[in-house]
Design goal:
With 113 residues, the chain is α+β, with helices and mostly antiparallel strands. The protein is 22% helix and 41% strand. Strands 1, 2, 3, 4, 5 and 6 form a 6-stranded antiparallel beta sheet that branches. The radius of gyration is 17 Å and the shape is globular.
């Protein structure tokens, strides 16, 4: 009988096991959990996690102004690849323009292409 990975993953799903790699090993990207439009046209609030190529992970409620591609993390935690907190707070100063790949991915997912 040949090994069938589909059967293994189906079984694990039925018994409640999941296979979620740690965030640090998941690679560069943006994982958007929720987004909603705010009162000002073009302004959105997105709950997301950004994973940078150096292993840093930024989790926050991001205020994103689509017309200018400006980002301001709120209620944020920035941690290194080992989980050590580098910076955290309620309001990131100053707001910044999407520059790195995860930031660009966040803007594209929230604002559209």
């Amino acid at each position: 009988m040949k090994f069938n990975p589909f059967i293994l993953f189906t079984f694990l799903g039925l018994v409640g096991f999941t296979f979620d790699p740690p965030i640090a090993s998941a690679g560069v990207g943006a994982i958007v959990e929720d987004k909603r439009a705010l009162d000002e046209p073009g302004l959105y609030l997105a709950t997301a996690t950004l994973e940078y190529d150096d292993g840093d992970v930024l989790t926050a409620d991001f205020r994103i102004y689509c017309p200018t591609v400006m980002i301001r993390p709120t209620n944020y935690v920035l941690a290194d690849r080992d989980g050590n907190i580098k910076r955290q707070g309620d309001w990131w100063e100053p707001a910044f323009k999407a520059e790195y790949s995860p930031e660009t991915m966040l803007v594209e997912e929230v604002c559209g292409p």
